[in-house]
Amino acid sequence: MSEPLLEVRSLVVEFEGPGGKFRALDGVDLEIRPGESVGLVGESGCGKTTLARVILGLDRPSHGSVVFRSERGSEGLGMVWQDPSASLNPRWTIGRSVGEPARIHRKKIDVDALLTEVGLDPSLGCRYPHELSGGQRQRAAIARALSLRPDLLLCDEPTAALDLSIQSQILNLIREEQRRLGFSVLYISHDLPTVRFLCDRIVVLYLGKVVEEGPAEEVYAAPRHPYARMLLDSVPSLERVGELPIGGFGEAGSRPHRGCVFAPRCPWADDRCREVPPAPTREPHRVDCWHPLG
Ligand SMILES: Nc1ncnc2c1ncn2[C@@H]1O[C@H](COP(=O)(O)OP(=O)(O)O)[C@@H](O)[C@H]1O
Ligand SMILES: [Mg+2]
After folding, report:
1. For ligand 1, what atom is nearest to the CA of residue 59?
2. What is the four-CA torsion angle of 120, 121, 124, 130, rounded to 10 degrees?
3. Which ligand 1 atom sits nearest the alpha carbon of residue 42?
4. Which class for 23: exposed (0-12), middle (13-18), buried (19 or more C-beta within 10 A)?
5. CB 3.0–4.6 Å: which of 42, 43, 236, 241 could bond 205 by disulfide?
6. Which ligand is nearest to the Cα of residue 157, counting in written order?
7. Ligand 1 atom 16: the closest Cα is on which residue?
8. Which domains does the chain have, with CATH numbers?
9. pLDDT one-digit tens code per residue, 27-50
10. Where are the alpha helices (DSSP H) in the chain?
11. Predicted pLDDT of residue 236
12. How far is the CA of 42 from the centre of ligand 2 (A)?
């Protein structure tokens, strides 16, 4: 197997919160291989954006390491944010924003060809962001992120603010570009079906910890961690109704000091879960749980 393009080891990121220091990420390991697409899923606040920011060098690890093995350094990294205005300056034309990374890195690119590639008419290059639709703006943000032909594209919920019909167009665009250009993807979402569509592998994050990780089809078809099951069950599906123990899953709450992070919400939690952090099992794929499903 080839060396990982991205290697995240025992990553801890601490922030100052209202009640003192807390860990937004707490011992995260993650590898992404060349050409691989990995989906990072979890509810709001579990640390997804923080992980993307650390990979980009915008936040610093408190402990642990992030190694990005691209010979081209930061040029090898592309980023698509949920809000396209994070990468499109409102006072600049679309063409100028798309061409900006190339200008900074003194590279020659064909902005018209890039716009065409992402499904935009090149004439939109002379327009300003507010003159485009939300979907068109996100296409332009993708053109910018792909302009230097990154080895790894980070996507942080790029469809979350778009209408449903537009969401699938953007997902298709990312998938087609990945197949054509062969870059790796880290796709962040709170939505498992989306990630399954796009990704080879799924990593499930809960309150700063990876609780399950495995091939996308396997995690989707047979989630082993109760939290992964809960994420899937929040997607309406007839087959899943009636499989839950009485009482169901609890509300997201504060972080417990010991034991399993998910224990306060887990219908299967017992004394051991509340006291002792779960030891990961690896077969058929990784799950950190004392009572894995299936
Ligand atoms: N700069 C910061 N300072 C303090 N707390 C932060 C900062 N950035 C993120 N957080 C907190 O860290 C946790 C994880 O945030 P985030 O990574 O944005 O989660 P997600 O993207 O999964 O919604 C949240 O509780 C958030 O409030
Ligand atoms: Mg986020």
Report:
1. 1
2. -40
3. 22
4. buried
5. 42
6. 2
7. 47
8. 6-204 (3.40.50.300), 224-288 (no CATH)
9. 999 999 999 999 999 999 999 999
10. 48-56, 94-104, 111-117, 134-146, 164-181, 192-198, 216-221, 226-233, 271-275
11. 53
12. 10
